[in-house]
Amino acid sequence: MSEEQEKENRKNQEYVEKNLDKLRNLFMDKYVVIFNQEMVGSFTTFQEASEFGVWKYGIDKAFLIYHMETKKPLNFVFTAKPTTHSPVWHLA
Q1: What pairing do the DSSP bridges indicate for beta strands 39-43 and 80-82?
Q2: Residue 52 near residue 58, CB atoms below 8 Å
Q3: How far is the CA of 81 from the CAs of 34, 52, 76, 78, 85, in angstroms?
Q4: Strand, helix or coil for residue 66
Q5: pLDDT, tens digit, 9 for 90 and up, residues 60-72
Q6: C-alpha distances in angstroms, 28 versus 20, 22, 32, 70, 71?
Q7: What does the pLDDT look like over 20-49, one tens digit per residue?
């Protein structure tokens, strides 16, 4: 990656960070394509977003694909333990 592409990637990332709440509200669970500090498309899959970016800008331009997810990851912790009544395991 060239120095110019790295610089553009940093600018695109900064754009996302500054607009993250708005982008999440509008495009939750979508993959958005950012080019020149502008959201230029939203897609259901990473594959669709990457194909669009390459088709529109080629492989020599810096564009960012960002997956709009919930603010905090959802973590579930389960502990499995046997009961005295059954050999079946239950989640506690």
Answers
A1: unpaired
A2: no
A3: 47, 48, 16, 10, 12
A4: strand
A5: 888 899 999 876 5
A6: 10, 10, 10, 7, 10
A7: 999 999 999 999 999 999 999 999 999 999
